[in-house]
Design brief:
The protein has 327 residues and is an alpha+beta fold. Helices cover 50% and strands 12% of the residues. The longest helix is centred in the last third of the chain and has 37 residues, at 222-258. 13% of the residues are buried.
Length: 327
């Protein structure tokens, strides 16, 4: 509403209760979780209980109507996934108007996978900020896993620099993949997960189809026939559900890895970084794990994409002719 006013649009509404309209939390959450911005059409989220009652209830997501790539996305899917991840984490500022902690939603205990909690030691001339395992802090077991914020900053900065430097080789691979215009069919072929599932499904289909002949020849009884048919049918249905899930995962990886290859150029801009920024951390890092001996492990958001690049590069180097046929 304020945006329309700023543009000189004569806009009035009876819902306005204050002189200046403000975004409320539910409205912001709806915007941040709305998949229409990444090109997905979603309908049928709610329904009336019956025609007599004017009460609307939310439906389970499995009952929604969803069409991916229905329209052009205006938000990068990788950025969208980062926001969803942060929304699931316990991120909050201590006081109104303050920003969230630099490592909020990114820091986890390596042993129990609980989020690390921030502590301030006010003893001494200057306060010392450090993090400990939240499970330990609540008395739920695990170790302390304490690490000072300054030590963490130094370690994370060094690992980010090393990571960005290692991305140099992927720029050539990315350019090669871009020129080949890798198809979705080749991408599916590179993913080996479906091979086992398809073989398993085919095996149960063959076993099921042979049951009737076994019954006719007296190899199995009628009760055994119905029991085994039900068993094989259930295994086939399970395989089909697994294949559907794998297809969704492959599609997600294809979009994330090959749909936007500009992330390498964007990240390389930070190769001379000297100070950590919250924006860079949430874009670059998935999780930072703290070990008991104050060592850390970093899982980067682009590890999946780089793994895909390695697989495609290895496949095209070994079987370039086949790769070009599929492309």
């Amino acid at each position: 509403m304020e945006y329309k006013k700023s543009k000189g649009i004569r806009y009035k509404t009876g819902f306005s209760t204050k002189a200046i309209a403000k975004w409320d939390v539910p409205a912001i959450n709806r915007i941040l979780t709305n998949e229409v911005y990444i090109g997905t059409l979603q309908q049928g989220k709610r329904e009336k209980i019956n025609y007599k009652l004017n009460k609307v209830v939310s439906k389970d997501r499995v009952d929604w109507i969803e069409i991916e790539d229905n329209h052009e996305a205006i938000i990068d899917i990788h950025d969208f996934e980062i926001v969803q991840k942060l929304l699931r984490c316990d991120i909050k500022a201590k006081n109104v108007g303050e920003k969230a902690d630099l490592f909020a939603g990114l820091l986890f205990c390596k042993d129990c996978n609980a989020q690390m909690t921030k502590k301030v030691d006010k003893r001494g001339k200057t306060p010392t900020i450090y993090y400990i395992c939240s499970a330990y802090n609540k008395g739920l077991g695990c170790g302390r896993h304490s690490i000072k914020q300054e030590d963490l900053k130094i370690a994370v900065l060094e690992m980010i620099r090393h990571y960005i430097e290692s991305l140099g080789k992927y720029e050539k691979i990315s350019e090669k993949i871009r020129e080949m215009e890798i198809s979705y069919e080749l991408f599916k072929k590179l993913d080996k997960r479906q091979e086992h599932t398809k073989k398993s499904k085919k095996k149960f289909e063959l076993l099921k189809s042979s049951l009737y002949n076994d019954l006719k020849e007296g190899i199995i009884s009628e009760d055994e026939f119905y029991d085994m048919r039900e068993f094989y049918t259930n295994r086939i249905v399970e395989s089909e559900l697994i294949l559907e899930k794998q297809n969704r995962e492959i599609t997600r990886l294809y979009k994330k890895s090959l749909g936007n290859q500009n992330f390498l150029v964007e990240i390389r801009k930070y190769r001379n970084i000297s100070v950590l920024e919250r924006g860079l951390l949430v874009r670059l890092i998935d999780k930072i794990y703290v070990l008991e001996d104050k060592r850390i492990e970093i899982h980067f958001n682009y590890d999946e994409s780089l793994d895909v690049f390695d697989k495609i590069n290895g496949y095209t180097n070994q079987e370039p002719a086949k790769a070009m046929e599929v492309v």
